[in-house]
UniProtKB/TrEMBL annotation:
Taxon lineage: Eukaryota, Metazoa, Chordata, Craniata, Vertebrata
UniProt cross-references to PROSITE patterns, sorted A to Z: HMG_BOX_2
Biased composition (Basic and acidic residues): 1-26, 43-52, 86-104
SUPFAM superfamilies according to UniProt: HMG-box
Acidic residues bias: start-end ranges: 123-141
DNA-binding region as annotated in the record: 1-29, 52-107
Keyword Nucleus: yes
Superkingdom as given in the UniProt entry: Eukaryota
The protein, known as: HMG box domain-containing protein
Length: 141
């Protein structure tokens, strides 16, 4: 919707910025531990998170995408009554505490505590067998 003269101004700015970017990237060295994709490599000695219920759902419904699998887990969880959810939540809490203790030991006794009131990971909502969901913020450790 821009006129050619207005558009040329933005194209010139983009060309100048690309030259600057290429100049800066020619000297760039990624930090240690980061590969080509920019992801930090996982330490094979790090404690493993508890297993999750997702693989069994993927086995039952092999054509589901990641998002659809999460939706299916959410549906299954919402159909349970509070009394049916209770054993799973207790087991998930125990597994979460064990993982937290293992991470504290792995990190050399540093302070690592999960906020017990936080449900940002959504592990309990999709958690059929009390097995904790992957926690995205800790994948890079």
């Amino acid at each position: 919707a821009l006129s050619p003269s207005e558009k040329k101004r933005f194209e010139d700015m983009a060309k100048a910025d690309k030259v600057r970017y290429n100049r800066e990237m020619s000297d760039y060295v990624p930090p240690k531990g980061f590969g080509k994709r920019g992801r930090k490599r996982k330490d094979p000695n790090a404690p493993k998170r508890p297993p999750e219920y997702r693989p069994s759902v993927k086995q039952q419904y092999p054509g589901l995408s990641i998002g659809d699998c999460a939706k299916k887990l959410g549906e299954m969880w919402s159909k349970l009554t509070q009394s049916e959810k209770q054993p799973y939540e207790e087991k998930a809490q125990k597994l979460r505490e064990k993982y937290d203790r293992d991470m504290v030991a792995y990190r050399g006794g540093g302070t690592f505590a999960r906020n017990p009131d936080s449900s940002a990971q959504g592990g309990e909502e999709e958690d059929e067998e009390g097995e904790d969901d992957d926690e995205e913020e800790e994948d890079d450790e």
